[in-house]
Amino acid sequence: MRPRGAAPAGPAALALFAAASIAGCGYALVGTGKGSLPEDVKTVWVPTFVNDTQIVSLEQRLTSAVIREFAARGRLKPAASLEAADSVLNGRLTSFSLQPVRFDTEGRAVEYQIAVMARLQLVDRKTEKTLFEESGFLVRQPYNIPLTSGSYFNPETAAVEVLTLPFARTLVTTILEGF
């Protein structure tokens, strides 16, 4: 039953609704095109990142993960040497933190927030133009402690492993898609 005085929903009202629906809300996903890299930049050399943190081998793990991610994506292939590369990605790991965020009933941390910050720069070797630069590239990742017998273990080592893939994926996506 229609409220008193309301017009029936005719073809004109339906057409207006359809037009408004198609027009959308004005938001669009950025970074879904070809990306912002020049077409002639096809390879990248990734030297081992500089590690300013106190986490041993963090630079090796993150650098390796980034190289693997570039190889998996295909748009910008890792070069075998600096001389063979069209571009160079330099990185400096400036901070690492592992903060407990949730505790069990006995006060032991059961979840941590991992964060790593880096200074990164991708340079075209031919033109020496900076293609990507981020002085505060930050990746955060939650890390749940596995249930154990209660014996002590260092959560830092496992946390680094948990963080490598999200760091690499986020960085490579940012470079390739222009996010």
What is the topological layout?
Layout: H1 11-23, E1 43-45, E2 50-51, H2 58-73, E3 77-78, E4 87-103, E5 109-124, E6 130-144, H3 155-177
Parallel strand pairs: 1-3, 1-4, 2-4
Antiparallel strand pairs: 4-5, 5-6
Helix pairs in contact: 2-3
Which structural traits does this protein have?
alpha/beta, Double Stranded RNA Binding Domain, elongated, 179 residues, six-stranded mixed sheet
User: Stretches where pLDDT falls below 50 for ≥5 residues?
Assistant: 13-33
Q: What integer value in Å does the Rg equal?
A: 24 Å
**Which architecture per CATH?**
2-Layer Sandwich
> Using DSSP, what is the number of strands?
6
Large-scale geometry? elongated
- Largest sheet properties: 6 strands, mixed
The chain-level mean pLDDT equals 83
CATH C-level label: Alpha Beta
Oligomeric state of the chains? single chain
Q: How would you describe this structure to a colleague?
A:
This protein has 179 residues and is α/β, with parallel strands linked by helices. The chain has a single domain, classed as Lipoprotein like domain (Double Stranded RNA Binding Domain). 29% of the residues lie in helices and 31% in strands. The longest helix is centred in the C-terminal third of the chain and has 23 residues, at 155-177. It is elongated and about 60 Å long. The model is unreliable at 13-33 (pLDDT under 50).
